[in-house]
Amino acid sequence: MKITLAGSRHFGVETLNMMRGHGIDVIRVVVADGEDRLAAAARAAGIEVVVQARPKLIVASEIAPGTDLIVTAHSHALVGEDALKAARLGGIGYHPSLLPRHRGIAAVEWTIKEGDAIAGGTIYHLSERLDAGAIAAQDWVFVKKGETARELWERALAPLGLRLLAQVIDQAKTSGILPSMPQDEQFATNAPRLDKEKPHAAPKSAAS
Question: Domain limits of the chain?
Answer without folding.
Answer: 2-187
